[in-house]
Amino acid sequence: MYAKDWLKNAHDVMNTIEQTQMENVRKAATLMADTIQAGRWVHTWGCGHATIPCEEMYPRIGGIVGFHPLCELPLTFFTQIIGQMGIHQFLYLERLEGYAQTVMKNYEFSSDDCLWIFSHTGINAVNIDMANEAHKRGMKVIVYGSAGNTGDKPGRHSCGKNLFQLADVVVDTCVPLQDASVTTKKQFDKIGPLSTMGSITLVWMTICTVVEILEERGVKIYINPSHNVPGDTTAQQRLDEAIDEYKRRLKVL
Hints:
Number of domains: 1
Number of helices: 11
Number of strands: 7
Distance between the termini: 50 Å
Shape: globular
Radius of gyration: 19 Å
CATH class: Alpha Beta
Protein backbone atom coordinates (compact mmCIF):
# COMPACT_ATOMS: atom_id res chain seq x y z
CA MET A 1 0.00 0.00 0.00
CA TYR A 2 1.41 3.36 -1.02
CA ALA A 3 -0.12 5.00 2.07
CA LYS A 4 1.79 2.68 4.40
CA ASP A 5 4.97 3.20 2.38
CA TRP A 6 4.69 6.94 2.95
CA LEU A 7 3.90 6.47 6.64
CA LYS A 8 6.95 4.25 7.11
CA ASN A 9 9.14 6.82 5.36
CA ALA A 10 7.72 9.56 7.60
CA HIS A 11 8.38 7.50 10.73
CA ASP A 12 11.95 6.87 9.55
CA VAL A 13 12.54 10.59 9.11
CA MET A 14 11.15 11.42 12.55
CA ASN A 15 13.22 8.69 14.17
CA THR A 16 16.36 9.96 12.45
CA ILE A 17 15.61 13.50 13.60
CA GLU A 18 15.31 12.27 17.17
CA GLN A 19 18.53 10.27 16.94
CA THR A 20 20.67 12.96 15.29
CA GLN A 21 19.26 16.48 15.69
CA MET A 22 18.42 17.03 19.36
CA GLU A 23 21.65 18.91 20.06
CA ASN A 24 21.21 21.12 17.01
CA VAL A 25 17.60 21.84 17.96
CA ARG A 26 18.80 22.97 21.39
CA LYS A 27 21.41 25.27 19.83
CA ALA A 28 18.81 26.85 17.55
CA ALA A 29 16.27 27.17 20.36
CA THR A 30 18.82 28.88 22.60
CA LEU A 31 19.45 31.60 20.01
CA MET A 32 15.70 32.05 19.60
CA ALA A 33 15.15 32.23 23.35
CA ASP A 34 17.84 34.92 23.61
CA THR A 35 16.02 36.97 20.98
CA ILE A 36 12.57 36.57 22.52
CA GLN A 37 13.89 37.35 25.99
CA ALA A 38 15.37 40.57 24.59
CA GLY A 39 11.89 41.58 23.41
CA ARG A 40 12.85 41.13 19.76
CA TRP A 41 11.79 38.91 16.85
CA VAL A 42 12.70 35.55 15.44
CA HIS A 43 11.97 36.36 11.80
CA THR A 44 10.92 33.36 9.74
CA TRP A 45 11.34 32.94 5.99
CA GLY A 46 10.62 30.34 3.36
CA CYS A 47 9.61 30.12 -0.30
CA GLY A 48 6.97 27.90 -1.83
CA HIS A 49 6.05 25.02 0.45
CA ALA A 50 8.86 26.09 2.78
CA THR A 51 6.51 28.91 3.79
CA ILE A 52 4.20 26.39 5.49
CA PRO A 53 6.39 26.10 8.61
CA CYS A 54 6.34 29.91 8.94
CA GLU A 55 2.55 29.93 8.79
CA GLU A 56 2.33 26.99 11.19
CA MET A 57 4.01 28.49 14.22
CA TYR A 58 2.07 31.70 14.88
CA PRO A 59 -0.72 32.58 15.16
CA ARG A 60 -2.11 29.22 16.13
CA ILE A 61 -3.18 27.41 19.28
CA GLY A 62 -0.12 26.51 21.33
CA GLY A 63 2.17 28.95 19.55
CA ILE A 64 4.01 31.71 21.38
CA VAL A 65 4.64 35.39 20.66
CA GLY A 66 8.11 36.10 19.33
CA PHE A 67 8.00 34.68 15.81
CA HIS A 68 7.47 37.09 12.92
CA PRO A 69 6.76 35.68 9.43
CA LEU A 70 8.38 37.42 6.48
CA CYS A 71 5.96 36.02 3.91
CA GLU A 72 6.44 37.60 0.49
CA LEU A 73 3.25 36.94 -1.46
CA PRO A 74 4.77 36.23 -4.91
CA LEU A 75 6.98 33.58 -3.27
CA THR A 76 4.19 31.98 -1.28
CA PHE A 77 0.94 32.29 -3.19
CA PHE A 78 1.34 30.33 -6.39
CA THR A 79 -1.66 28.03 -6.07
CA GLN A 80 -3.25 29.60 -9.14
CA ILE A 81 -0.60 27.53 -10.98
CA ILE A 82 -0.80 29.66 -14.14
CA GLY A 83 -1.62 33.30 -14.82
CA GLN A 84 -0.96 35.92 -12.15
CA MET A 85 1.56 34.75 -9.53
CA GLY A 86 1.87 31.37 -11.22
CA ILE A 87 4.55 28.71 -10.97
CA HIS A 88 6.78 30.20 -13.67
CA GLN A 89 7.00 33.58 -11.93
CA PHE A 90 7.64 31.92 -8.58
CA LEU A 91 10.49 29.79 -9.92
CA TYR A 92 12.05 32.85 -11.53
CA LEU A 93 11.87 34.98 -8.39
CA GLU A 94 13.28 32.39 -6.00
CA ARG A 95 16.35 32.11 -8.25
CA LEU A 96 16.78 35.87 -8.69
CA GLU A 97 19.70 37.57 -6.95
CA GLY A 98 18.83 40.91 -5.37
CA TYR A 99 15.16 40.28 -4.69
CA ALA A 100 15.70 39.51 -1.01
CA GLN A 101 17.51 42.80 -0.44
CA THR A 102 14.42 44.61 -1.73
CA VAL A 103 12.18 42.60 0.60
CA MET A 104 14.31 43.41 3.63
CA LYS A 105 14.14 47.16 2.97
CA ASN A 106 10.57 47.04 4.28
CA TYR A 107 11.57 46.20 7.86
CA GLU A 108 13.70 47.46 10.73
CA PHE A 109 16.01 44.74 12.01
CA SER A 110 18.16 44.56 15.11
CA SER A 111 21.31 42.63 15.88
CA ASP A 112 19.27 41.07 18.69
CA ASP A 113 16.97 39.52 16.08
CA CYS A 114 17.61 36.22 14.37
CA LEU A 115 16.44 34.84 11.04
CA TRP A 116 15.00 31.31 10.78
CA ILE A 117 15.04 30.09 7.17
CA PHE A 118 13.38 26.95 5.84
CA SER A 119 14.74 25.56 2.60
CA HIS A 120 14.80 21.95 1.50
CA THR A 121 17.84 22.10 -0.78
CA GLY A 122 19.36 25.44 0.25
CA ILE A 123 20.44 26.31 -3.28
CA ASN A 124 18.14 29.13 -4.43
CA ALA A 125 19.46 32.68 -4.63
CA VAL A 126 16.70 34.46 -2.73
CA ASN A 127 17.33 32.39 0.41
CA ILE A 128 21.09 32.84 0.15
CA ASP A 129 20.63 36.59 -0.20
CA MET A 130 18.36 36.62 2.87
CA ALA A 131 21.07 34.94 4.92
CA ASN A 132 23.78 37.28 3.70
CA GLU A 133 21.66 40.36 4.33
CA ALA A 134 20.78 39.16 7.82
CA HIS A 135 24.45 38.73 8.66
CA LYS A 136 25.17 42.26 7.42
CA ARG A 137 22.69 43.48 10.03
CA GLY A 138 24.37 41.45 12.78
CA MET A 139 21.64 38.83 13.00
CA LYS A 140 22.19 35.14 13.61
CA VAL A 141 20.93 32.87 10.83
CA ILE A 142 19.32 29.51 11.57
CA VAL A 143 18.56 27.18 8.66
CA TYR A 144 16.39 24.05 8.57
CA GLY A 145 16.50 21.75 5.56
CA SER A 146 18.06 18.69 3.99
CA ALA A 147 21.56 19.81 4.89
CA GLY A 148 23.26 16.42 5.01
CA ASN A 149 22.01 15.49 1.56
CA THR A 150 22.84 18.87 0.01
CA GLY A 151 26.34 18.75 1.47
CA ASP A 152 28.71 21.15 -0.28
CA LYS A 153 26.78 21.37 -3.54
CA PRO A 154 27.03 24.96 -4.81
CA GLY A 155 23.93 27.14 -4.73
CA ARG A 156 22.35 29.11 -7.55
CA HIS A 157 24.19 32.22 -6.43
CA SER A 158 27.29 34.10 -7.49
CA CYS A 159 28.84 33.64 -4.03
CA GLY A 160 29.32 29.97 -4.85
CA LYS A 161 27.93 28.72 -1.53
CA ASN A 162 24.67 27.07 -0.53
CA LEU A 163 22.45 28.27 2.29
CA PHE A 164 23.59 25.70 4.83
CA GLN A 165 27.20 26.83 4.46
CA LEU A 166 26.17 30.36 5.47
CA ALA A 167 24.15 29.47 8.57
CA ASP A 168 25.19 29.96 12.19
CA VAL A 169 23.12 26.93 13.17
CA VAL A 170 21.87 24.18 10.86
CA VAL A 171 19.18 21.64 11.73
CA ASP A 172 18.84 18.77 9.28
CA THR A 173 15.30 17.69 8.42
CA CYS A 174 16.77 14.29 7.46
CA VAL A 175 14.59 14.18 4.34
CA PRO A 176 15.97 12.75 1.08
CA LEU A 177 16.99 15.45 -1.37
CA GLN A 178 14.47 14.18 -3.90
CA ASP A 179 11.78 14.83 -1.25
CA ALA A 180 9.18 12.55 -2.87
CA SER A 181 9.61 9.17 -1.22
CA VAL A 182 7.20 6.53 -2.54
CA THR A 183 8.02 4.39 -5.57
CA THR A 184 4.95 3.34 -7.54
CA LYS A 185 4.47 0.43 -9.91
CA LYS A 186 3.83 2.37 -13.10
CA GLN A 187 5.18 5.92 -12.67
CA PHE A 188 8.66 7.22 -13.43
CA ASP A 189 8.59 9.86 -10.70
CA LYS A 190 8.12 9.13 -7.01
CA ILE A 191 5.19 10.54 -5.03
CA GLY A 192 4.66 11.44 -1.36
CA PRO A 193 7.05 14.27 -0.35
CA LEU A 194 8.36 14.45 3.22
CA SER A 195 9.95 17.89 3.59
CA THR A 196 6.88 19.64 5.03
CA MET A 197 6.35 16.88 7.57
CA GLY A 198 10.02 17.02 8.59
CA SER A 199 9.99 20.80 8.92
CA ILE A 200 6.76 20.94 10.92
CA THR A 201 8.05 18.23 13.25
CA LEU A 202 11.14 20.30 13.91
CA VAL A 203 9.17 23.52 14.31
CA TRP A 204 7.32 22.18 17.32
CA MET A 205 10.34 20.40 18.72
CA THR A 206 12.17 23.73 18.54
CA ILE A 207 9.41 25.92 19.93
CA CYS A 208 8.79 23.51 22.80
CA THR A 209 12.50 23.75 23.57
CA VAL A 210 12.37 27.56 23.38
CA VAL A 211 9.56 27.55 25.94
CA GLU A 212 11.51 25.18 28.17
CA ILE A 213 14.55 27.50 28.08
CA LEU A 214 12.49 30.63 28.74
CA GLU A 215 10.72 28.94 31.65
CA GLU A 216 14.10 28.03 33.15
CA ARG A 217 15.08 31.70 32.88
CA GLY A 218 11.85 32.93 34.44
CA VAL A 219 10.78 34.84 31.31
CA LYS A 220 7.07 35.56 30.78
CA ILE A 221 5.71 33.65 27.78
CA TYR A 222 2.69 34.73 25.79
CA ILE A 223 0.87 31.68 24.45
CA ASN A 224 -1.93 31.70 21.91
CA PRO A 225 -4.53 29.73 23.89
CA SER A 226 -7.28 27.42 22.75
CA HIS A 227 -10.34 29.64 22.74
CA ASN A 228 -12.79 26.93 21.70
CA VAL A 229 -12.90 24.89 24.91
CA PRO A 230 -16.27 25.16 26.70
CA GLY A 231 -15.96 26.39 30.26
CA ASP A 232 -12.62 28.18 29.85
CA THR A 233 -13.74 31.63 30.94
CA THR A 234 -10.34 33.35 30.71
CA ALA A 235 -9.29 32.17 27.24
CA GLN A 236 -10.27 35.42 25.53
CA GLN A 237 -8.35 37.41 28.12
CA ARG A 238 -5.21 35.33 27.57
CA LEU A 239 -5.62 35.65 23.80
CA ASP A 240 -5.97 39.43 24.10
CA GLU A 241 -2.80 39.57 26.20
CA ALA A 242 -0.88 37.61 23.58
CA ILE A 243 -2.13 39.82 20.76
CA ASP A 244 -1.32 42.97 22.74
CA GLU A 245 2.24 41.73 23.23
CA TYR A 246 2.48 40.95 19.52
CA LYS A 247 1.32 44.48 18.69
CA ARG A 248 3.82 45.95 21.15
CA ARG A 249 6.68 44.16 19.45
CA LEU A 250 5.44 45.15 16.00
CA LYS A 251 6.03 48.81 16.86
CA VAL A 252 9.77 48.24 16.52
CA LEU A 253 9.37 47.07 12.91
